[in-house]
User: What shape does this take?
Amino acid sequence: MHRTRFLLVALQFVLAGAAAEASGGALEIVEPWLNEPPPGRPVAAVYMELRNRGAEPLAVVGARTDAAASAAVHGHRVEAGTMHMYAVDRLDVPAGGSVALRPGGYHLMLGGVRGTLARGALLPFCLRLDGGEEVCAEARVRKFGE
Ligand SMILES: [Cu+2]
Assistant: This one.
């Protein structure tokens, strides 16, 4: 009985892995980067282009990184002449299309950045899709204005 249950759990794990490859593989994270944060600044914004090479629409619903306490997709909007950030619970990437995360627009917001992000360093992170799959990449730290 116990053994059967273990096998079922193991099988589900294998199936989930296969699904991640089939579906998550359609999302391509192109040239992720961030500006070198000023010393002691605990927040940073990561930019990139998201390309959906698949025939089905995809949506990013979460993010994580070991390099920071929190990671979330944000957007910008202007209200009464002031720029505000807001959390984006679901970022849709149309089939065969792309979405740009760039300064002044969408970005991956990191809070509680651990350690120092020096120019040239690579920051690993993962985006979670609405099907539960994850797509991971490494963002390159640039010097401001580079
Ligand atoms: Cu933000």
In short: The chain has one helix and ten strands. The first strand starts at residue 27 and ends at 35. Residues 2-24 form the longest helix (23 residues). The chain has one domain: 2-142.
